[in-house]
Amino acid sequence: MNLWRKMAGFVRKALSLTDPTGWAPQGAASHAGEVVTETSALALSAVWACTNLLAGTIASLPLMVYRTNANGDREVAKDHPLYRVLHDSPNADQTAVDFWEYAVSGMELWGNAYAPISRAGGRVVALTPIKPSIMTVDRSASGELRYRWSEDGKTHEVMQRDMLHIRGFGGSPLGGHSTLAFGRHTFGLATAIDRAAGKMFENGMRPSMALTFDKFLTDEQRKIAETSLTEKYIGAVNTGRPFINEGGSKLEAITIKPEDAQMLQSRGFSVEEICRFFGVPPFMVGHTEKSTSWGTGLEQQTLGFQKFTLRRRLKRIEQAIEKQLLTPQDRAAGITVEFNLEGLLRGDSAARAQFYGVMLDKGVMVINEVRALENLPPVEGGDVPRMQMQNVPITQAGTGQSGSKPVEAKP
């Protein structure tokens, strides 16, 4: 038996070097005794909120295809075949928001997002997502990555050229780390706490009781105590019924009180623990117990969320697309793929106005570019960059647009 255990441990250790989830598959029991699956994890409000926030935010950002010419000028390449696939509709059934929300949720929970690539004439025409839980990745004899899955009673197999694979945290060629696997103890504990709270309310907030008698009972008396009393007094619907105490019996509570178990504090701590796994500030999922709901502190946390949580996820998606979907000819032509982070300003008119004002004053953008972003028609003269001239050398103060010399002051 010891030999078999050693062999099993060796296999698990070997798997962990290439497959981060091999030793801890989804559906494994946690320390709290709860089995953690995708469904049970998403049943936790904090997991749902974090996944929904990350997937929804990234999916709502416009994914653009750009072309940079020899002069360094960059423009949106709407004529490129990938633009319609990435920006508008990756397949016949989904919009871009639907597709990317599904893909990012797979990255957050399973550590991977998969989408077989459909091509026509050498060009990508569709991306169809596959549920990460049914995918198996290994290397073929030639060293190329091989993807296998079964769906609708059919088994599929494609090589890496025909699969868009976006990896989450971890970066292994075979796949990223699964949050469900590594966070199963935290998720299991949160589920156990919720279950305990539910059982308490199910019993009408009444603790478990011990019924003590001063002498041994007959079989008939024991049956009455175990069945009749249970049916009559257990459950929230029976709350308030008077208990008839007779025959020298005593009724004593044996359950730890919720305040003694610190159930509320434990549930709050579970929210914070779950947020750590996803890199989401707790206040962004409605947990404001230790922070104010207003003020610059939360503004800085929001900026930190964009910099340290969103940015690396966006870069993973962008680089995976450029590596796996662009051809050498596309790269030679200066084609790049990038999320437009200005989409985050759409819901904040004040921040959007301030951003446009700075870009116009510095000459970085022109009026018609701003109007295009606001879905407004161009205006005459709106394609000329402008710059305010208040910060000029003192020796040029008073110089007109014609470039004449400064007017000398008379004595």
Helices and strands, with pairings:
Blueprint: H1 2-18, H2 38-42, H3 45-60, E1 63-68, E2 74-76, H4 81-88, H5 96-110, E3 112-120, E4 123-127, E5 135-139, E6 145-151, E7 154-159, E8 163-167, H6 179-182, H7 184-202, E9 209-212, H8 219-233, E10 250-253, H9 258-261, H10 263-278, H11 296-325, H12 328-332, E11 335-339, H13 349-361, H14 367-373
Antiparallel strand pairs: 1-2, 1-11, 3-4, 3-8, 5-6, 6-7, 9-10
Could you please describe the fold and organization of this structure?
The chain is an alpha+beta fold and 411 residues long. It is 42% helix and 14% strand. It has a 3-stranded antiparallel sheet with strand order 2-1-11. A 3-stranded antiparallel sheet has the order 4-3-8. A hairpin with a 5-residue loop joins strand 5 and strand 6 (145-151). Helix 3 packs across helix 5 (96-110), helix 3 packs parallel to helix 10 and helix 7 runs antiparallel to helix 10 (263-278).
What tags apply to this protein structure?
about 400 residues, alpha+beta, 3 domains, 3-stranded antiparallel β-sheet, 14 helices, about 40% helix, flat
Q: Using the alpha-carbon principal axes, give the shape.
A: flat
Main beta-sheet annotation: 3 strands, antiparallel
Distance between the ends:
108 Å
Judged by helices, strands and strand pairing, the structural class is: alpha+beta
How many DSSP E strands? 11
Query: With helices defined by DSSP (H or I, 4 residues minimum), what is the helix count?
Result: 14
Low-confidence stretches: 10-24
Order of strands, widest sheet? 2-1-11
Gyration radius (Cα, Å) is: 31 Å
Q: Name the helix and strand elements from N-terminus to C-terminus, one letter apiece.
A: HHHEEHHEEEEEEHHEHEHHHHEHH
User: Which strand-content bin applies to the residues?
Assistant: 5-15%
Average pLDDT figure: 78
The number of distinct structural domains comes to: 3
Helix share, percent? 40-55%
